[in-house]
Amino acid sequence: MEESLKSMSMDYLNLLINGQAFSDVTFSVEGRLVHAHRCILAARSLFFRRFFCGSADSSPGLHLLLDNHHHYRSSRAVSAASPASPRGGGSGAVIPVTSVSYEVFLLLLQFLYSGQVSLVPPKHEPRPNCGDRGCWHTHCSSAIDLALDTLAAARSFGVDQLALLTQKQLESMVEKASIDDVMRVLLASRKQELHQLWSTCSHLVSKSGLTPEVLAKHLPIDVVAKIEELRLKSSLACRPAFLPHSHLPLNVASESDEHHNKIRRMRRALDSSDVELVKLMVMGEGLNLDDSLALHYAVQNCTREVVKALLELGAADVNCPAGPTGKTPLHIAAEMVCPDMVAVLLDHHADPNVRTIEGITPLDILRSLTSDFLFKGAIPGLTHIEPNKLRLCLELVQSAAMVLSREEAAAAAAAAAANSNGNVDSRMVYLNLGMAAAARLDCDSSSSRSQGSSGGIGPSSLYSQHDHFP
């Protein structure tokens, strides 16, 4: 029975692929003709059944209109029968379909004909909103866009099974997607009242570590309030159940509010370049700079001097990952194409080879941006990029990666040589390596202090050499 159903599915799909064979209706989508069969569409979709039976509202032109003000917005489709064809168009009528892309419309028809469809774009195919040439498009922005558009079309055309399939696909995608894409899906699920998808996305956003101030830039206030409510419930659930009631805090909500107030004060201090106040908050109030993503915020919003002073406090991990993707401050500086931030982070031992959860390094980001700039002449989201800054960022990170690679190779060779000598105690090998690392740090420190006179090759030195390039 299963083989028989698969065979029937392929037969119907071939009927669609063969185009004009037995076709009795033609659609025009983005200037391209699509031939179909009214009996199949009417049997599989209530929308098309009403359309071909002439029960929909009539208007000239046989338009199928979909609101595309936002690519995820769902609206009622308006269909009509022309005065010349009261039954919804004959074999000679061409029905324009507006505000639905050709790709999405074909996916919709493919599901109607065969009962199956692949919502993942072909791997390694160049697509809008995806600058990675080798992307498999499993959870990138382009894949999210296609799934959201298909979901809107499925709901508009009344194909409930496809809508359910697309919703499940999105639930799987957002688990690995960037936080920006998760918030886009969150808004779409809220507008279309998709409760399961909303629940998945809201929990991911609540775990992202983004502050209410940052969330408010992307989400409505009421959505931010619900996410904060989820965070509060999560903090209550994480507390040990075996503690007696008398040992619990008097007001957990007030603790959460106090934590957020600390973060707000810390960020206001960074905005005003008052690093001393941040230092007092760390020492006196127990503020954790990594938990509050202080360094990430400073790289994105403050000056080089503020970032440098924050790093010199010694209370922040320069390689601290943040959010569901695990980006470090160096990833953010690379995305911003900001050579002064890249230089100061590398000066304080930022790892150029650190990877996000998706396996992307800061060097990968800069190489991808450079490739886009060279081949496309522009970078999405960075319309005013300066070529010299992009080149300088790439050189800084490449140089740091090369130096680190050489040091690791030398350390590995030293360890191998020591291990080959059977009379050497392994504890002595560890001691020697630790002394070598300390000596390297001392050399780096003295080099960075005398970079103007010694002609060193540290990140700041390299940055200063390129600072006055035309």
TrEMBL record:
It is found in: Cytoplasm; Nucleus. Keywords: ANK repeat, Cytoplasm, Metal-binding, Nucleus, Repeat, Ubl conjugation pathway, Zinc, Zinc-finger. Residues 447-470 are annotated as: Disordered. One of its GO terms (cellular component) is nucleus. GO terms for molecular function: transcription cis-regulatory region binding; zinc ion binding. ANK repeats lie at residues 325-357. Residues 127-141 form the C2HC NPR-type domain. One of its GO terms (biological process) is regulation of DNA-templated transcription. InterPro entries: Ankyrin_rpt (IPR002110), Ankyrin_rpt-contain_sf (IPR036770), BTB/POZ_dom (IPR000210), NPR5/6 (IPR044284), NPR_central_dom (IPR024228), SKP1/BTB/POZ_sf (IPR011333), Znf_C2HC_NPR-type (IPR057250). Its main location: cytoplasm. Pathway: Protein modification; protein ubiquitination. Residues 23-121 form the BTB domain. It holds the Pfam family Ank_2. Belongs to the plant 'ANKYRIN-BTB/POZ' family. 'NOOT-BOP-COCH-like' (NBCL) subfamily. This is Regulatory protein NPR5. It comes from Dendrobium nobile (Orchid).
